[in-house]
Specification:
globular; 481 residues; disordered N terminus; alpha/beta; binds 5-hydroxymethyl-3,4-dihydroxypiperidine
Length: 481
């Protein structure tokens, strides 16, 4: 299957269009959301911020860390738009107490970070690196000391390079190694970390990393999609089982990048509907269905079938304590007869506001996905584990008076509240992200933080959105625009 025409930026829009429109950031649209009964979130709702190891830590050679696929990818000429790398990032490996202060300073009760697998197992497997564990142990203690609950993601795309050299996620063995790593982390940190997220956005890693070549490991081979999807799902199931066997009392979930796939020109252009459904099966269904129903959607089955072994679907269908939902945008899909997959990125409605990536801004897409999770997948507890928006792409300083970000967040939180009022069990919301960081192939050009960072000094400066979000976390009351 190829996905001609679909790139990250084109997943839902055209970046050039957004730039031409001169967007300061994310103009929020109040979509056709139901009228809210009230704007008060429950007192026990968890307000947090999210980050990822590779985007923030830096110190990529410190204390015995092994190389990851992102170290190798970022060094390829032209792979990263501004030619940067993540060797410093936010310097959080050394400045983690400042990060913890910022989280606590906003009154947030939770911080989602990821653990760099190559710090723990520099070769992907075998000998555990105590110095790597020690860093996360100190980070966890710093958070707990400040009354912040750690939510630790195990795999946020930084696979040990040594495992990629053995086939990466196309190889079944990688799923087993993830489970070993998950068990080791549980044994070392499970006394203090109670909330774990196994995978972050497996669909993004599978498609952008293995089909489009825009993310590490930088492969462009559509034939890898089935194996990679299945082994990520299998690794997740094996990890949940291994973690439960290692320790009771944990809250274990996994995070997906959920996006409604809308046919371009609907409802008139009915011919785009099958392409949108095909994309949906691949992007959403291929991860939701095995986890909650123990089966792949029909449209994804042929891709994964050669890898399926007896018992796999039972292993993947592990009960989870929550589903993490990351949402930024819906995507528009059209039929493309010139592509073997028949799927191509379409154009959102012309009037739709766009984010810096050129993606449509529409909180109703979040409500759609939360409704679907409630109605079709047994209404699991959900955390919104990422939502936020970038400044317009720029090499310059961040926008500190970021009203556009506040508007974006407010509109998406209205969608969250609407879903809760309809019966969704949403337990918390994590803003992506705490501090402007290294945004993968976009380098430092994209800034999602509540806090700006001076790349020369590493100094952190809270933005207007930080103050607004702190106020929301304190009261739970969502203000009006
Ligand atoms: O920065 C990323 C993150 O790593 C995964 N979810 C989307 C974010 C913004 O693009």
């Amino acid at each position: 299957m190829t996905m001609t025409g679909i790139t990250r930026r084109r997943l839902g829009g055209v970046a050039a269009g957004a730039a031409a429109a001169g967007l300061a950031g994310c103009a929020a649209k109040t979509g056709p959301l139901p009228v809210l009964k009230d704007r008060q979130f429950p007192a026990d709702f968890t307000w947090g911020a999210a980050s990822a190891a590779y985007q923030t830590e830096g110190s990529t050679e410190a204390d015995g860390r092994g190389r990851s696929i992102w170290d190798e990818f970022a060094a390829r000429p032209g792979a990263i738009i501004d030619g940067s790398d993540a060797t410093t990032a936010c310097d959080s490996y050394r400045r983690y107490t400042e990060d913890a202060d910022l989280v606590a300073g906003a009154g947030l009760k939770a911080y989602r970070f990821s653990i760099a697998w190559p710090r723990i197992f520099p070769d992907g497997a075998g000998a555990l690196n105590e110095a790597g564990v020690d860093y996360y142990s100190r980070l966890v203690d710093a958070l707990l000391d400040r009354g912040v609950s750690p939510f630790a993601t195990l795999f946020h795309w930084d696979l040990p390079l040594a495992l990629q050299e053995k086939g990466g996620w196309a190889a079944r063995d990688t799923a087993l190694r993830l489970a070993d790593y998950a068990a080791a982390i549980t044994a070392r940190l499970g006394d203090r970390v109670k909330n774990f997220i196994v995978l972050n956005e497996a669909a993004v890693h599978a498609v952008l990393g293995h089909v489009l070549g825009e993310h590490a490991p930088g492969l462009k081979d559509a034939a890898l999609l089935g194996p990679v999807i299945h082994h990520l799902n299998l690794g997740q199931g094996l990890s949940v089982a291994a973690m439960r066997a290692a320790q009771g009392g944990l809250s274990i979930g996994t995070t997906m990048a959920l996006q409604p796939a809308r046919p371009q020109g609907a409802p008139l252009a009915f011919w785009n509907r099958p392409a949108a459904d095909g994309f949906d099966a691949l992007w959403n269904g291929a991860f939701l269905d095995p986890l909650f129903k123990g089966a792949y959607p029909a449209a994804a089955l042929a891709m994964v079938e050669p890898m399926l072994q007896e018992g796999d679907l039972t292993l993947i269908r592990q009960p989870v304590d929550f589903l993490g939902v990351n949402y930024y945008s819906p995507t528009t899909i059209r039929l493309d007869l010139s592509s073997p997959s028949r799927i191509a990125a379409g154009e959102p409605p012309a009037a739709a506001p766009r984010d810096a990536f050129g993606r449509e801004i529409d909180p109703s897409g979040l409500l759609d996905m939360l409704t679907r999770v409630r109605e079709s997948y047994g209404n699991p507890v959900v955390y919104i584990t990422e939502n936020g928006c970038s400044d317009a792409f720029s090499d310059g300083p961040a926008v500190l008076d970021d009203g556009f970000r506040i508007n974006y967040l407010r509109a998406h939180l209205e969608a969250v509240k609407a879903a809760m009022e309809a019966g969704s069990r949403i337990a918390g919301f994590f803003h992506w992200t705490l501090i402007d960081n290294w945004e993968w192939a976009l380098g430092y050009r994209s800034k999602f933080g509540l806090v700006a960072m001076d790349r020369t000094t590493g100094a952190r400066t809270p933005k207007a959105s930080y103050v607004w979000y702190a106020g929301l976390a304190a009261s739970g009351l969502l203000d009006e625009a």
